[in-house]
Amino acid sequence: MRRLTTLSLVLALLLAACGGGDEDEGNQGDGAGPGTTPATGNFDPDAVAIYVGEGFDVSRIEPGGGSEQLVGGLTDCYETWYLDGSVWVSCVGGELLRLDPESGDIQLDIETGDYVEEIAVGEGAIWVLNGSVGIATEIKQVDPSSGEIMNTLTPDEGAFFEDITAGEGAVWAVGGSVETVSTIVRIDPGSATVSTVIETGIIPARVEAGLGSVWLVGSGILGADGSGDTGLHLVQVDPGSNEVVSDLKVGDVDGFPDLAVAYDSVWLTDTVAGELVRVAGSGKEVQARVAIGTGGQDLYEIDVAKGLVWAGNPFDSQIFGIDPTTDEFETGINGGAKGIAFAP
Q1: How many other CB atoms are found less than 10 A from the CB of residue 238?
Q2: CB 115 within 8 A of CB 129
Q3: Would you say residue 1 lies in a domain?
Q4: What would the DSSP string read from start to end of 24-50?
Q5: What CATH number is associated with residue 233?
Q6: CA–CA distance, 307 with 313 (Å, rounded to integer)
Q7: Domain membership of residue 218 as a residue range
Q8: How many CB atoms lie within 10 A of CB 184?
Q9: Each residue of 17-31: pLDDT tens digit?
Q10: Residue 46: exposed, middle, or buried by beta-carbon count in 10 A (0-12, 13-18, 19+)?
Q11: CA 237 to CA 283: how far, in whole Å?
């Protein structure tokens, strides 16, 4: 996940959830959605470890409580991911670090030259969305063994990228066009060049690949003639034809939805309703909605680990582990979800 949280708050509340506080500390209350039960706040001791970038260090919160510093002496390092068996952390000064999740040893120190907005691991490389905070103006292809920057892809002047993923035989990035905000680009991983620009019909915010498709979540577009709508849409692209094959409206949009593909389903956040939405792998049917907050807030984030879907609501300072087979709360943690990386 991408954003900063406060380790002391997460740790204190996590310890309370593990038995140091009232039994119902993590309860969601009256907001439970259809087919769900309120979170109990009891954190499964076999659940995931959690990694948090705190600026000058990266710490690991253990499932059973307690925290240890993995690495210190850093400078402005916050954004944290767990990908491909390693912990990744980006630093404001243009560094991307790969850490051993157990020892904290720095395995790679990659000089990107600017702020790392997002990364993807797959298709034989590390793909780094690089630029200023909130706007990425280049994609760097990095050798996963040596950390060497092999290629740099820059869009046309005035264009930028917003999100990136790797899978289904290509690398996919939101944006890349100066003419419209409704495109994604397909990047050939062999040459690190844009092979196709795809019109999505929405303004995409996030992209993920899986289940034989490329998935985008974002807002609909209202036409000059009043056609269309500005609701929250899930769009499915066939990587074989590079064409949109489904467009499902799942709610209203206000803020920054998140997206994950796992457990034969597509998961996204409806920030207006405060819900985690499960969509069938066909992309054509909403199968469940799980309340994860009060709604009307502009940021919820999703992670996937240990057989659960973790839906975070940083404004309510809660993270819920949801069983994908029942759409019910399996466990819950109090503590902001911004910037936490879950390790399976």
Answers
A1: 14
A2: no
A3: no
A4: TTT---TT--TT------PPPTTS-EE
A5: 2.130.10.10
A6: 20
A7: 7-343
A8: 28
A9: 333 333 332 223 333
A10: exposed
A11: 10
What tokens were used for 242?
């590079």
Q: pTM (2 decimals)?
A: 0.82
Amino acid at the residue 72: G
Q: What are phi and psi of 83, to 5 degrees?
A: -140, 140
Is 158 part of a structural domain of the chain?
Answer: yes
Q: Quickly list DSSP for 107-148.
A: EEEEE-SSEEEEEEEETTEEEEEEEETTEEEEEEEE-TTT--
Q: Which of 27, 35, 41, 39 is nearest to 290 (CA)?
A: 35
Q: Give CB contacts under 8 A, 24+ apart, made by 139-145.
A: 139/164, 139/171, 139/173, 139/187, 139/192, 140/112, 141/189, 141/192, 142/96, 142/110, 144/84
**Would you say 120 and 110 are in contact if contact means Cβ atoms under 8 Å apart?**
no
Tens of pLDDT, residues 79-127: 788 887 888 888 877 889 999 988 999 999 998 888 888 889 899 999 9
In a domain, 191, yes or no: yes
Residue 2 lies in a domain: no
Q: What's the domain count of the chain?
A: 1
Mind listing the pLDDT tens digit for each residue in 124-167? 999 999 887 667 889 999 998 899 999 999 988 888 898 999 99
SS3 166: strand
Tokens of 141: 């292809």
Which residues have C-beta within 8 Å of that of residue 161, sequence separation ≥ 6? 117, 129, 131, 136, 137, 138, 139, 155, 173, 174, 175, 176, 185
Tally the residues of the chain.
344
Helices (H) and strands (E) in the chain, counts: 1, 28
Q: Among 135, 126, 141, 35, which Cα is nearest to 88's?
A: 126
Whether 155 contacts 169, CB under 8 Å: no
- The residue type of 308 is L
